[in-house]
Each structure stands twice: as structure tokens, then as C-alpha cells.
Structure to design on (80 residues):
């Protein structure tokens, strides 16, 4: 999974990242109250990361330990 949206997005869901995503891989997850990135659709371009006003988007290898569980949260949301 190239990019992950973490806890700072909860209850914010600013869609600036959605607007710049060239492959439309960012989705609203109303049940999680946040946005999520589809792991198979993301092309690892990084366009979304600087657009996030709450710094909630991380490369999967660089996600802070406190939010590491969001890698699985993002991926599993698409396997319902």
C-alpha cells in the first residue's frame, strides 16, 4: 500500500486530496468518519500528501507508529 490516511482525517474529511488524485483512489468511508486510499488503485504519485490540511496522509513505510493500524484500516475497508 503506497499511501495511507491516518487518524488526523477523522471527522475532517477535507477533500483537497481527492481533487488532485489522478486515479481517483481516495474514497469516503462514512462508517469510519474519514477518507481512505484504495491500496490497489493508488499509483504512489504522492500528489495527495501535500494537499492534506491536517497532515493525515503518509507513505506506508513512513506512517508514525501511533497510527500504524491505519494501514490495515485503509486496506480492510475495501474488503467488506
Amino acid at each position: 500500500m503506497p499511501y495511507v490516511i491516518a487518524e488526523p482525517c477523522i471527522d475532517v474529511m477535507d477533500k483537497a486530496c481527492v481533487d488532485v488524485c489522478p486515479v481517483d483512489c481516495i474514497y469516503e468511508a462514512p462508517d469510519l468518519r474519514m477518507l481512505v486510499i484504495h491500496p490497489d488503485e493508488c499509483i504512489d504519485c504522492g500528489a495527495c500528501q501535500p494537499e492534506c490540511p491536517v497532515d493525515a496522509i503518509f507513505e506506508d513505510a513512513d506512517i508514525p507508529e501511533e497510527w500504524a493500524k491505519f494501514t490495515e484500516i485503509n486496506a480492510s475497508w475495501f474488503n467488506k
